[in-house]
Amino acid sequence: xxxxxxxxxxxxxxxxxxxxxxxxxxxxxxxxxxxxxxxxxxxxxxxxxxxxxxxxxxxxxxxxxxxxxxxxxxxxxxxxxxxxxxxxxxxxxxxxxxxxxxxxxxxxxxxxxxxxxxxxxxxxxxxxxxxxxxxxxxxxxxxxxxxxxxxxxxxxxxxxxxxxxxxxxxxxxxxxxxxxxxxxxxxxxxxxxxxxxxxxxxxxxxxxxxxxxxxxxxxxxxxxxxxxxxxxxxxxxxxxxxxxxxx
Length: 247
Description:
- It contains nine helices and seven strands, in the order βαβαβαβαβααβαααβ.
- A seven-stranded parallel sheet has the order 3-2-1-4-5-6-7, with helices on both faces.
- Helix 3 (about 65-80) runs parallel beside helix 4 and helix 4 packs parallel to helix 6.
- It is globular, with a radius of gyration of 17 Å.
- By secondary structure, it is α/β, with parallel strands linked by helices.
- Helix content is about 45%, strand content about 15%.
- It comes from Rhodococcus pseudokoreensis.
C-alpha cells in the first residue's frame, strides 16, 4: 500500500463499476477512506465490500440529479469518517441518437445526470470544503466534450459544460483552498465499449496514435494525482487521457 491519501476521505459518484470503481480501488490502496455512491444502492454496497478495507469503506444509493440525495451522501461521509477531502463527480449515462431522432427526454436526461449532477456534487462538496479550507474536487468530462461526437449532441454538450463548470468553480474556490480539476478520458476499455460493432471500434482505434484503448486504471491514476498533494498548485485544469487521440 502507498499512502498518498493517508487519513483522507473520498466520495466517488457512479462508482459501482467501471472508471468510478477503478478510482475507488486505487484511492483505497493509497490509504483513503472511500464512500462509493451509485444510483444502484445494492451494487454500491457490493463494490464497497470489494475494496476490502473494512470500516474505511461505505456505500450509499444516490441519484446525483437530486441535490438532497447528494447532500445525504456527503453527510454520510462526514458522519462515518469525520471529514470529506476529495469528491469525484463521475456518475453518467448515455442516450445516443442523431439530432434528427433524439427525443427531448433523451437530451434532458443526459444533461441532468452529467451536468446538473456534477454541479450538485461540486457545489455541495465545496460548501463543506471551504469551511475546512482544503479539498480536491475532480470532475469527469470526456474527449466528446472537446471535439463532439456524432450521435452525442446531448453527451458532448454535457461534457463540454463540465469543463466550463470546473473552471468557473475553480476560480470561485481557489482562495478558499479548494482545488477543482477535470479529466477527459478518451476510448477506455469497458464492457460498454467492447460491445461496440467491430467497425466502430476499428474507426476509433485508427484515431489513437498509441494504437490501443486506455484502461480504467489509467484514468484512476490521474484522479489519484489530482486528489493528492502532488497536484497542490493545480486548479481549473483539464487532463486529456486519450492516448493522443484528437490532439
